[in-house]
Structure formats: C-alpha cells, structure tokens
Amino acid sequence: MTPTPNAPAPPLLQARGLCFARNEEPVFGPLDFELGPGEALLVLGGNGAGKTTLLRVLAGLLGASAGEVFLSGRPVDRGHLARGSAYLGHLPGHKAELGALENLAFHRALRGDATGADLERALTDVGLSGHEDSPARRLSAGQNKRLALARLRLQSAPLWLLDEPYANLDLDGIALVNHLIQEHVRAGGAVLLTTHGAYAAPPVPVRTLTLAPARSPA
Ligand SMILES: Nc1ncnc2c1ncn2[C@@H]1O[C@H](COP(=O)(O)OP(=O)(O)OP(=O)(O)O)[C@@H](O)[C@H]1O
Question: Which positions carry the signal peptide feature in this UniProt record (predicted)?
Fold first, then answer.
C-alpha cells in the first residue's frame, strides 16, 4: 500500500486489547497503549502486577492470550517481535565461561550482525575496560548488567524493552543507563522500561502505563 503523503507516521509500538493469562488466570490486560519514536514508556505496578510478563510478551518470548501488537503500524507475531526489539531482562543471558569481549562477539555472530562495531570500545563505554577477558561468571552483578548494556547498544532494534535496567548498578551505572536511553530515544528509537526507583527516571519524554490487577473474564 502506498503511504498517503504527509500522513503522520504510525507509532513504533502499539498494543490493542493485549492480555496474558496463565492457566486461565489473568496476569494483565486488556491493555491499549502506543509508543512513538523518541518516547519512553515507564511501566508501573506493584510486585507481581505483570510488568516482566508484559515485557516478555512484547519481546516475543511469551505468546499473548488475546489482543494484537503492531510495529510501525503492521500487525506482528512473536517472531517479528523478537527480531524488532532488544530485550534486557533480569538475567544477563551471558555465556558464563566466555570472556566479556567473547560474549559480545558471540551475540553479534548469533544475530548475524555485520556492522563491524568496535567491541572493545563498546566495553569501555560501559565502564568494563580491563575486563575484556574476564569470564562472565567472574563478573559482579553490576558488571554483568553493564555487559548486558553493551550488548543492548550493539543491537540495531528500534524498540528497547528494559526490565529493571537500574537494578544492581551504582550511581555511575544509573547515569549510564539514562545516557544510553537518551541516546537511543534521540536517534528515533523507543524504550519501554520498568523500575521500582522513581529517582532513576531517564531525562527524556516519559509516559507511564500502570498495570492494575487484571480483570477476570466475565
Ligand atoms: N514462570 C512463572 N510461572 C508461573 N507464574 C509466574 C511465572 N512468572 C511470573 N508468574 C506470576 O505472574 C504474575 C506476574 O509476574 P511478573 O513477574 O510479570 O510481575 P512483576 O510486575 O514484574 O513483578 P515484580 O515487580 O515483583 O518484578 C505474578 O503473580 C507471578 O507470580
């Protein structure tokens, strides 16, 4: 279909009637929201409200029970979501025996990414200079989070899904996350993030989505 001249660009991410249930017990939804390029959406809700589950659905790691998700105006399935987003979860997902640099190279090869980005520079940028050869299993929780941030930044996905990105980080690390979010959003990307620490809100236009207890089907 030919786009209408001067038509507003569709949101980068849109959810309509999105629900997730486990064993017929609703976890969240129905949710309707959208996120444009250059925006961040802070997902709020108490422990167990379904924030992580929502991010995993949007990352294509779990299938929604109902509803639709659109990327740049097109309805997408789980495979498209997995390819169109970069997910930072609670677990860093590194190969424990590989060094920090090897982990970045491994994930780049896995994605078939041929950008040729400087991986040593990527480690330096997240404060891991000097840890190039350290196996991931020997990195601290905060250093593992920093390595995951380096991986995130090397991906070209426009949509970032960040689950508790500030967890385990010192003040300098919190500022690093905010810098990366700001850089990504200014480049036209979008970020959906969860956090329990209001102090860490990134310095970009932020909207909020509060997950209320899910409604049981009538
Ligand atoms: N693997 C699982 N198997 C069964 N139930 C699960 C599983 N993971 C999460 N749940 C349940 O799903 C609900 C939502 O969990 P989720 O982790 O999405 O919440 P959350 O808002 O991210 O919580 P928190 O703020 O504590 O991290 C909770 O009731 C939780 O017990």
Answer: none
Q: 């507003």: which residue's tokens? A: 8
49 in contact with ligand 1, CB cutoff 6 A = yes
Any atom of ligand 1 within 6 Å of the Cβ of 53 = yes
pTM: 0.92
pLDDT at 35 exceeding the cut of 70: yes
Distance 214 CA to ligand 1 centre (A): 13
Q: Is the CB of 29 under 6 A from ligand 1?
A: no
**CATH entry, 13-94+157-210, from 3.40.50.300, 3.40.718.10, 1.10.3720.10, 3.40.190.10:** 3.40.50.300
ipTM above 0.85, yes or no: yes
**Mean pLDDT of all residues in 67-79:** 96
Q: Which of 87-91, 129-133, 196-200 has the lowest mean pLDDT?
A: 196-200
Q: Can you give the residue ranges of every domain in the chain?
A: 13-94+157-210
DSSP conformation letters of 150-214: HHHHH---SEEEEESTTTT--HHHHHHHHHHHHHHHHTT-EEEEE-S-GGG--SS-EEEEEPPPP
